[in-house]
Amino acid sequence: MSGLRERKKVKTREAILREAFRLFREHGYSATTVEQIAEAAEVSRATFFRYFPTKEDLVTLDRFLPLVEALKAQPPGAAPVSALRGAFRTAFAGLSAEEITAGHAREVFAATVPELVAANLRKSPGLIREVAEILADRTGCPPDDSRIQNVIGASFGVVAMAWLRWARDSAVDGPAEIDRSLAHLESGLTL
Amino acid sequence: MSGLRERKKVKTREAILREAFRLFREHGYSATTVEQIAEAAEVSRATFFRYFPTKEDLVTLDRFLPLVEALKAQPPGAAPVSALRGAFRTAFAGLSAEEITAGHAREVFAATVPELVAANLRKSPGLIREVAEILADRTGCPPDDSRIQNVIGASFGVVAMAWLRWARDSAVDGPAEIDRSLAHLESGLTL
DNA sequence: TATTTTATGAGACTACAGTATCAGTTGCGT
DNA sequence: ACGCAACTGATACTGTAGTCTCATAAAATA
């Protein structure tokens, strides 16, 4: 039952996000204060914090759930790097072009602003462990096996670099770039 | 000419660092305030900031210069990953066991506390670019070639994971773990 | 329409990082 | 011994994130 209240809340939430990202784009993340965001979104500071407990929460949402799900669904035969590659593929395939470009702005900050990198990193041990467990299941290794961790480290390493290229230049096709990078890793990083 | 003044300054600096890390160990990085550190080191808050412009500066020093130098000195024939592996080897070989264990405490924080990871990351684009240029020189690729970046991403990815294992468990032989991880990457991440 | 529940705004408050000022002290060269 | 330069402490100040309280307004419910 989406009453008026619910709809208003959604609108407020969207206004805050929209104005926040506009200000971030114009002045940068840390140079934008919560007060400015609240003012631009026409809510009080208190209300801002009711919607987003911290400023970081504007940018660090759980974006990797689809990836984890996709990874679980990969065919069992594939090698770990291939499975990760496939997971990224299907995770991106589940998004519309609009969602991808909309998400891109957010990712630019998440990948670029150190505070936000930190915020995301704070959540990353959980992601790494989860991925490690899935890959461990698939291969029969224990999840703390250093080979598994090397696969994860190397994969996320190349993905991060591709992600940065994407963040720096929105003309880059992020998903394709990520796929190519993982393919490169898959084939042994040949030159 | 190490006059009394110089020596005092060194002692003060050491006291600040020592007390800071003791408090970090006991209560964590962000739960430790500059005031507490200053008090423990028996200096004023103002003096603390004279020695370390920001709290982060306690932990984020330029630790990768030796690595870059070592990378430049690698034999020209080696593949990029091998060159990086060799560079880590020689960079660690240049440190005494005491230096390594002393540095370990710092690394634990630098690798574990998100704010510090971020602070280090803030300096990392320069490092990445530098490494990219060196590797590009060695291989003839342009430095922004995505293959070069993949090599860097993958290498630093596995190194980061090894580093984390080291940070979590000081019994781990960090340098050896890093070497093994890069060797694993070198040989195609075989399981 | 009357009552209850919930969102909001206003504003005071805390905590902490980092800055600025200024006076007092201490080592240093003469 | 003396005066200078550097180091220090005390202290007040700024900016910003995040908390708390309470009164008001607006939506839901009966």
From TrEMBL, chains A, B:
Domain HTH tetR-type residue range list: 10-70
InterPro entries: DNA-bd_HTH_TetR-type_CS, Homeodomain-like_sf, HTH-type_TetR-like_transc_reg, HTH_TetR, MftR_C
SUPFAM superfamilies, per the entry: Homeodomain-like
Entry keywords, A to Z: DNA-binding, Transcription, Transcription regulation
Top-rank taxon: Bacteria
Key word Oxidoreductase present: no
Full protein name: TetR family transcriptional regulator
